[in-house]
Amino acid sequence: MVTPVNPPPLDRTSPHQHPDTWRRLAPTLPEGVRVRLLHSVYGDPRAAAEAVPRLTARQSGGLDPLPTEPAELAPALLRAHRAEILALPDDTRLLLLLAAADQHPVPTHAFVRAVTAAGLETRPLEAAEAAGIAHATASGVVFRDVWTRIAAYETGSPADRRDVHRLLARVLRGDGETAGRSWHRAAGALGPSARLAAELTAAATSAHRTGRPALARTLAERAAVLSPDPRRQSRLHAHAAACAWESGDTDRARRLAAALTDDALTGVLALRTGNASEAFDALLTAAVRKTGPPHEKWHGAGAPGEDVGLPDRAHLFARATEAAIYTGDLRRCREAVRMAGQSGVAAPGTLGGLAAAVEGRYDDARDLLRTAAGRSGPGEDPTLLIHAGIAALLLGDHTLAVTATVRAAASARTRGTTVTVAQAMEFQVYADFWTGRPRAGEAAAADALWQAYATGQDNGACHLQAALAMFAAITGDADVCRERAATVRSYALAHGLGLPAALAQWALAFLDLGHGRFAAAAARLRALAGFGPGHGHRAIRHLAAPHYVEAAVRTGDTRVARAAHADYHRWASAVRSADDLALSARCRALLAPGAEALEHYRAALDLHAHGTRDLERARTELLFGGALRRLRHRTEARDRLHSALAAFEHFGAPHCAAQARTELRALGTPAPPARGAPGNPTARLTAQQLVVARMAAEGATNREIAVRLALSPRTIDHHLRGVFSRLGIRSRIELVRLLGDGGPI
Fold first, then answer.
1. Which pLDDT value is given to residue 12?
2. What is the total count of domains within the chain?
């Protein structure tokens, strides 16, 4: 099987490995640009240091795509490598040229066969090995690094390059080597050739259909160069851009798309990297303009079989759905449903369900969302699986939401659509923090955040930053919560992203609620109804309704609390989710007088037993225990509060645990000491503190940790002070002893 290496595999380059480079990059570039730049220079710190001052202001700010060619990124480094190659004997350089051509951008593993077919000797490679440039193995040549391999290819004359490509094409005769043979035949061509362009196009189509979009991009882009037909060139460039996007090579996709006038491509790219409102408009325009049957694929230049991988009309409406979800713009939801109907396409169930819910047609919304959530079987399209996960979240079925999003990520990996993996994780994390897995969820969200940045999906990164703000709120990391929420707010406003803006606001409200700042929590939750993209989101407002009721009741605003509960109860009754019904019963308990509240709390806990929102179950027990204490039901109050305390400590929610301890002290019952695993002092750390402590123990400075976690050095300093205090230590040396080799991790 031919495996593409351009772009290279996502290299999780650590800032600890190249601290000097990261100190230079940290103050000047946004996190997404930093990650993509290091990826584009193959993780080489010298190339990164050279590339930074060569970027334009717009590239440095993430507004324009980064350079994609080595000569644009680090020409001085490349010249130095070329000089090393040129100092070698001619026959050594020829072998290195042959090896480089065999490895990049389409690795064909034919070097040994080519050497044998040409009657060449491999002894000259000893000079390269002596110079530390490359060494021979039984299967080929291993270069010192990627930049050396690039230099070895570029030092060859055009005639020599064509000769080695033709040689490689001659020896590639096996099954599964069609794509490699076509590539080398095309690379050995002297000029445009309709025949070779058609051959490459067929190979690109096959590669795309078999889950190798990176290879398809390389072949399609070369086919465009060889095609003498300008119209076909445009279609092939569109194909290459779409495949580059799918494989995570966002900068190349944006550069290719910039020369095209294609609403579909513009919309897909803007959905994840630009303004979500503009993405919606472009996608809806593309869907409406699309001719032919709703599920017919577009074809390149009218030639049979030239499938350029661009979406059909139904898929475009699905993408428009995502844009509407991210913006939180209710008008756009309705517009997309109406336009889909006029185009003869059934509106995506998630979009139709949201539109119906917004209009108060909860029974219709339930049915539409259930239809969408039902499309979560193995083998489904990753985008449809993500939509199924979103629908399941809205229905309160977190088990199905996890199933759908995990399958979406797995399907995306199988199909080679790297770009979709991080998007699936954006919605999986909701289930993680609702079901009481903040540490695991935070780790998964941090990993997805890196993937989003690496693949140029800054809008998705904003959403994941908001999710991390919620995890920080749950685990009591107030500074991290506020810092991430502020980052989200700034970015979301500029890009019309209502969903992450609302989630970040909810995180701040949850933090306030956990610390007893009920008026502040109520004010923040009221703001979720804010109009316009980038401000609020109706779905998040609805999901946060139980917290709003609690905050409003605690501030004495029972009229507003009753109105919010009435609407929430209508939805819970329609979807019949055990968790939603439990939270509705809890709201009723908060609004009920005296002893009447106790029966509602018991009903809520009975319903929680059939649900999955374990964190909310613990909050219900906390509230129930407080109500029992005030009514002097001391024994039952003690049992409920101890149960809530144990749950909060298990979830790693110290501020909620502190509330339970306060209630126990008011009851006159000594609260047990904070729980920690015997022999494992790190159990006393929050999830964020544990991450910071491990990085510090590995030798990273505060600034390096701040860069990696997208936080400020001040926040990292605050966390380290907290780590030292909780672990009872006073220096980094003690931290290394505790967390280093042999220490508890």
1. 45
2. 3
Tens-place pLDDT, residues 152-161: 999 999 999 9
**Residue 703 is assigned to a structural domain of this protein:** yes
Domain assignment present for residue 309? The answer is no
Whose structure tokens read 């339970």?
660
Neighbours of 45 (CB within 10 A): 18
Hey, what's the torsion of the CAs at 582, 585, 586, 590, to 10 degrees?
A: 170
642 domain-assigned = yes
Mean pLDDT of 311-339: 83
Phi and psi dihedrals of 668, rounded to 5? 85, 15
Separation between Cα atoms, residue 478 and residue 53, nearest integer Å: 36
Helix (H) or strand (E) holding 622: helix 614-630
Q: Are residues 644 and 694 in the same domain?
A: no
H helix or E strand, kind and range, residue 136: strand 134-137
Using the CB atoms, write b or e for 574-604: b if 16+ within 10 Å: bbebbbbbbbbbbbbbbbeeeeebbebbebb
Residue 137 buriedness (CB in 10 A; 0-12 / 13-18 / 19+): exposed
Is residue 348, in this structure, part of any structural domain at all? no
Tokens of 432: 């993680």
Give the SS3 label for residue 287. helix
CB atoms within 10 A of CB 612: 20
Domain limits for position 698: 681-739
Q: Decide: helix, strand or coil at residue 134.
A: strand
| Cα(695)–Cα(716) distance, integer angstroms | 11
Please name which of 596, 595, 675, 607 lies closest in space to residue 642, comparing C-alpha atoms.
675
Cα 241 from Cα 582, distance rounded (Å): 48
- What is the C-alpha to C-alpha distance for residues 120 and 168, in angstroms, rounded to an integer? 13
Each residue of 356-397: pLDDT tens digit? 887 788 888 889 888 888 887 777 789 889 989 988 988 888
CA nearest neighbour of 688 among 726, 659, 662 = 726
Q: What contacts 166, CB < 8 A, 6 or more positions away?
A: 184, 185, 188
Question: Considering the entire predicted model, what is its pTM?
Answer: 0.84
Spatial separation of the C-alpha atoms in residues 489 and 512, rounded to whole Å: 17
Three-state DSSP class for residue 135: strand
Q: Are residues 660 and 696 in the same domain?
A: no
CATH code of the domain containing 691: 1.10.10.10
